[in-house]
């Protein structure tokens, strides 16, 4: 028997594969700008979602509460697309990997204990690692990592009926870190 929850979790953990985008050449090896490739993938996903919602088709892996709203996979993909096209790699990597890897940890620790401390520490560690790997000064890496961790876990907590936390947990840290970047003169290494 197939365990849908385990399959959803496995897919969730693989979302960071999208970060390959940053290593593609500007023409994505196909002669069009790589941002258009992201847009095309999102159009396909949302056409599938529109068809699913209109026809009330029960897609495998869609949870019951998603049957009458846009699915988590589509909203998560939209958040990833925004990250890829509009944000630099270190910030996008933190947001995408944070959503992909720390969101399941949030759910586990809500059930088993340790929430929100364990996810905040894990997100901070992940963010600081990415920022340090991108040659950010240690203070900047720690500061942006701490802000990203608190904002991401705080944004994951509320349940908004029509918007999945995969989207929220990606875009809120993106825009907060992007806003800080603008205000402070850039997410400088």
Description:
There is one protein chain. By secondary structure, the chain is mainly α. It has one domain. The chain contains seven helices and no strands. The mean pLDDT is 92.
Topology at a glance:
Layout: H1 4-14, H2 34-55, H3 72-86, H4 89-112, H5 117-133, H6 138-156, H7 165-184
Helix pairs in contact: 1-4, 2-3, 3-4, 3-7, 4-5, 4-6, 4-7, 5-6, 6-7
Structure described in brief:
This protein has one domain. 68% of the residues lie in helices and 0% in strands. The chain has helices at 4-14, 34-55, 72-86, 89-112, 117-133, 138-156, 165-184.
Backbone CA Rg: 17 Å
Q: Work out the helix count.
A: 7
Shape: globular
Structural class: mainly alpha
Helical content (DSSP H or I, runs of 4+): 55-70%
* Beta-strand content estimate: under 5%
* Oligomeric composition of the shown chains: single chain
Number of domains: 1
Distance between the termini: 49 Å
Major sheet attributes: none
Per DSSP E runs of 2 or more residues, the count of β-strands stands at: 0
Which features would summarize this protein structure in a list?
189 residues; 7 helices; mainly alpha; single chain
């Amino acid at each position: 028997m197939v365990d849908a929850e385990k399959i959803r979790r496995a897919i969730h953990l693989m979302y960071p594969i999208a970060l390959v985008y940053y290593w593609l050449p500007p023409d994505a090896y196909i002669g069009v700008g790589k941002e258009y490739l992201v847009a095309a993938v999102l159009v396909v996903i949302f056409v599938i979602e529109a068809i699913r919602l209109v026809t009330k088709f029960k897609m495998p892996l869609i949870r019951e509460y998603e049957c009458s709203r846009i699915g988590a996979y589509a909203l998560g993909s939209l958040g990833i697309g925004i990250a890829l096209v509009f944000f630099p790699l270190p910030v996008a990597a933190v947001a995408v990997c944070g959503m992909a890897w720390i969101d399941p940890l949030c759910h586990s620790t809500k059930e088993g204990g340790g929430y929100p401390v364990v996810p905040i520490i894990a997100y901070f560690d992940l963010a600081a690692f990415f920022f340090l790997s991108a040659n950010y000064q240690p203070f900047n890496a720690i500061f942006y990592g701490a802000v990203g961790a608190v904002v991401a876990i705080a944004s994951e907590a509320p349940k908004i009926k029509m918007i999945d936390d995969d989207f929220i947990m990606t875009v809120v840290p993106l825009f907060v870190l992007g806003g800080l970047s603008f205000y402070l003169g850039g997410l400088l290494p």
